[in-house]
């Protein structure tokens, strides 16, 4: 058994888009190649679920973290939001 992460972005119209943890982490790390153009100059909600998994099958929800993400004009994360997201991932993995 192990852990899996699921990342969901919630639009202003309450539609939900799942994105990979790898893409989310690249965005958080300010990778110059990574952006979400559709969210340029928007503030949206996100939810990150930590699941206990066996193989790829989820067994239980361990933790859910949620909050807001603010994007700049290019669709990159506003740097003032980066620390809280990184701290959550870092402390969970300890």
Topology, pairings included?
Blueprint: E1 2-10, E2 16-19, H1 21-28, E3 43-54, E4 57-70, H2 82-93
Antiparallel strand pairs: 1-2, 1-3, 3-4
Task: Assess the beta-strand content as a share of residues.
Answer: 35-45%
The average pLDDT score comes to: 84
Count of individual beta strands: 4
Cross-sheet strand order for the largest sheet: 2-1-3-4
Distance between the termini: 17 Å
Secondary-structure element sequence?
EEHEEH
Task: Characterise this structure.
With 94 residues, this protein is α+β, with helices and mostly antiparallel strands. The protein has one domain. It has 2 helices and 4 strands, in the order ββαββα. It has a 4-stranded antiparallel β-sheet with strand order 2-1-3-4. A hairpin with a 5-residue loop joins strand 1 (2-10) and strand 2. The protein starts with a strand and ends with a helix. The mean pLDDT is 84.
Describe, in short, the structure shown.
The protein is an alpha+beta fold and 94 residues long. It is built from two helices and four strands; from the N terminus they run ββαββα.
């Amino acid at each position: 058994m192990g852990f899996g992460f699921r990342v969901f972005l919630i639009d202003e119209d309450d539609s939900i888009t799942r994105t990979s943890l790898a893409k989310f982490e690249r965005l958080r790390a300010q990778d110059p190649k990574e952006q979400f153009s559709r969210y340029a100059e928007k503030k949206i909600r996100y939810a990150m679920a930590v699941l206990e998994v066996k193989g790829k099958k989820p067994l239980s929800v361990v933790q859910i973290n949620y909050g807001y993400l603010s994007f700049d004009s290019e669709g990159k994360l506003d740097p003032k939001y980066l620390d809280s997201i990184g701290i959550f991932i870092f402390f969970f993995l300890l």
